[in-house]
Amino acid sequence: MNAQDEASQLAEGVAAAELTSLADCGDEEDEEEDVSADDSEEPSWIAWFLSLRGNEFFCEVDEEYIQDDFNLTGLSSLVPYYDYALDMILDALIESQMC
């Protein structure tokens, strides 16, 4: 086994451990969502994206952190279509279309 394969396996293990620990540390809102979720529901795009090979170093971030303007300081000048991108990340586009 070469070093790249070992690094890939290590990254997959770390990503799996992170996802497991995130799932175990859910608050009441997460628990309510789990109870109301059907088994037939597809996973969120975030869970799907994180599970893709090559994305082992990405992690899920709490929505509250993303919505805090302090944590996003300066990004609007660096990211093209910032508002659209933020709405897409937060799934705001889908929710607004459903209402």
Detailed description of the structure:
- With 99 residues, this protein is mainly alpha-helical.
- The chain contains 7 helices and no strands.
- It has helices at residues 3-24, 28-36, 45-51, 63-67, 75-78, 82-89, 92-98.
- The longest helix is centred in the N-terminal third of the chain and has 22 residues, at 3-24.
- The chain is extended, with a radius of gyration of 16 Å.
- The chain starts with a helix and ends with a helix.
- The model is unreliable at 24-32 (pLDDT under 50).
Helical percentage? 55-70%
Which term fits the overall shape?
extended
Count of individual helical segments: 7
How far apart the termini lie comes to 52 Å
Element-level helix/strand string: HHHHHHH
Oligomer type? single chain
Please mark out the parts with pLDDT under 50 across 5 or more consecutive residues, or reply none: 24-32
Instruction: Give the structural class.
Output: mainly alpha
Radius of gyration: 16 Å
Main beta-sheet strand count, sense and barrel state: none
Number of strands: 0
Percentage of β-strand residues: under 5%
Write down the overall mean pLDDT. Answer: 72
Topology summary:
Elements: H1 3-24, H2 28-36, H3 45-51, H4 63-67, H5 75-78, H6 82-89, H7 92-98
Question: Which short descriptors sum up this protein?
Answer:
99 residues
Short summary:
With 99 residues, the protein is mainly alpha-helical. It has helices spanning 3-24, 28-36, 45-51, 63-67, 75-78, 82-89, 92-98.
